[in-house]
């Protein structure tokens, strides 16, 4: 019987240069601190010897253009490339020093997809979509120079309305847990993005965060109280800049009722950086 | 306002360097065939990404188009 052996969630713009440019020295310091916490979580993940790492993240209108924006998409195939962008700006630039290709865990990805469809989740699939910083900054920060296990990238549409609901994302996470339990693999799962930043996806509001809202999310996660999190509305997530918390909702469904342990929380004017791990004992 | 027309144009500007170069040389000519409102066309002509965001352009695109990205003030 398979098992989820590691679960963590974390911010995904992990670039001290970027946050120094936009927030000054404190931006570099807090990004370094967050990355150190994520690297320590990665060491604990590697020690599990997991067969696969499920990565739940979002696309920043890089992999999917306006011909199709899937609500939930499972990446299948044998490997996945990192996104390439000429003259990369801002958060795209962090990808440039990273490896170009990553192996996938085909069997687990196919099981999540096929059993999901059978269970009533109308999942999208992709053989070709590349992954951007939302996937690769956390994965590379966690592993450093250690080998990265086969990945199962899963995209959640966090930005293009109408997004899937928090409750639906949680239910999909429960589905992942059932697939893992039916299989033979030890699996890690991470969710990326957040916490509060870019409220209302408005340039005018860059620099605003909602630490009170983040405090509520953390309070519920630490206590394993997942019902109020499933009740979060799209409007609440949009106004508080918590769009990417939908990725975290998938993870919560996969590990519920496990309780979260905050490894790092650092407020910057641009974003609240976070690194959180779940106690699965 | 056409959310699709604005954002498909932003996506093309990010991902198509040749189109981006044509836009840089003559924005109005490059977007002549796009189904934009007068306000949207004026914002693109002015390369005003902040205004394009107000008109429905997705934040992550207006922050990341090479050479055109908006740079909000440092905080």
Q: What is the 3D form of chain A?
A: globular
Q: Strand percentage of chain A, roughly?
A: 15-25%
Count of domains of chain A: 1
| Quaternary structure classification | heterodimer
Q: Report the major sheet of chain B.
A: none
Per CATH, the architecture of chain A is 3-Layer(aba) Sandwich
Structural account:
The complex is a heterodimer of chains A (281) and B (75). Chain A is α/β, with parallel strands linked by helices. Chain A has a single domain (3-278), classed as LigB-like (Protocatechuate 4,5-dioxygenase, Chain B), CATH 3.40.830.10. Chain A is built from nine helices and ten strands. In chain A, the strands form two sheets. In chain A, strands 6-3-7-2-8-1-10-9 form an eight-stranded mixed beta sheet, with helices on both faces. In chain A, strands 4-5 form a two-stranded antiparallel sheet. Chain A starts with a strand and ends with a strand. The model of chain A has no long low-confidence stretch (mean pLDDT 96). Chain B is mostly helical and 75 residues long. The radius of gyration of chain B is 11 Å and the shape is globular. Chain A binds chain B through residues 21-24, 60-61, 65-66, 85-92, 159-160, 198, 201-204, 206-207, 268-270, and chain B through 4, 7-8, 11, 14-15, 17, 49-50, 53-54, 58-67, 69-70, 72-75.
In short:
Chain A is an alpha/beta fold and 281 residues long.
Annotate the secondary structure layout.
The complex is a heterodimer of chains A (281) and B (75).
Chain A lengths: L2 E8 L5 H8 L1 H23 L4 E6 L14 E4 L3 E3 L19 E3 L2 H13 L5 E3 L6 H11 L7 E6 L9 H17 L3 E7 L18 H13 L3 H4 L3 H7 L4 H11 L3 E9 L4 E8 L2
Helix pairs in contact in A: 1-2, 2-4, 3-5, 5-9
Chain B lengths: L2 H13 L1 H9 L1 H4 L7 H8 L3 H6 L4 H4 L13
Descriptive key words:
heterodimer; A: 281 residues; alpha/beta; Protocatechuate 4,5-dioxygenase, Chain B; 38% helix; globular; B: 75 residues; mainly alpha; 59% helix
């Amino acid at each position: 019987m398979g098992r989820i052996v590691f679960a963590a969630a974390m911010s995904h713009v992990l670039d001290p240069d970027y946050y120094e440019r936009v927030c000054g020295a404190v931006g570099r310091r807090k990004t370094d601190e967050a990355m150190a916490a994520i690297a320590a979580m990665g060491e604990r993940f590697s020690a599990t010897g997991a067969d696969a790492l499920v990565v739940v993240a979002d696309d920043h209108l890089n992999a999917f253009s306006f011909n199709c924006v899937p609500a939930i998409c499972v990446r299948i195939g044998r490997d996945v490339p990192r996104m390439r962008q000429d003259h990369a700006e801002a958060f795209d630039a962090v990808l440039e020093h990273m490896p170009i290709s990553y192996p996938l865990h085909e069997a687990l990805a196919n099981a999540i997809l096929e059993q999901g469809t059978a269970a009533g989740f109308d999942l999208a699939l992709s053989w070709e979509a590349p992954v951007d910083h939302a996937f690769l900054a956390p994965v590379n920060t966690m592993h450093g120079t250690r080998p990265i296990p086969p990945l199962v990238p899963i995209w959640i549409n966090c930005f293009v309305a109408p997004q899937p609901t928090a409750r639906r994302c949680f239910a999909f996470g429960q589905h992942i847990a059932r697939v893992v339990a039916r299989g033979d693999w030890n699996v890690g799962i991470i969710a990326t993005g957040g916490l509060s930043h870019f409220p209302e996806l408005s340039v005018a509001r860059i620099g605003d965060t909602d630490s009170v809202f983040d405090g509520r999310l953390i309070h519920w996660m630490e206590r394993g109280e997942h019902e109020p999190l499933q009740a979060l509305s799209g409007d609440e997530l949009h106004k508080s800049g918590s769009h990417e918390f939908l990725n975290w909702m998938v993870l919560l469904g996969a590990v519920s009722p496990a309780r979260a342990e905050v490894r790092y929380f650092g407020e910057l004017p641009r974003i609240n950086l976070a690194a959180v791990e779940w106690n699965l004992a | 306002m056409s959310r699709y027309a604005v954002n498909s144009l932003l996506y093309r500007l990010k991902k198509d360097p040749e189109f981006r170069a044509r836009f840089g040389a003559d924005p109005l000519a490059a977007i002549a065939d796009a189904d934009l409102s007068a306000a949207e066309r004026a914002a693109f002509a002015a390369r005003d990404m902040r205004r394009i965001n107000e008109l429905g352009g997705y934040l992550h695109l207006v922050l990341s188009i090479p050479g055109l990205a908006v740079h909000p003030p440092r905080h």
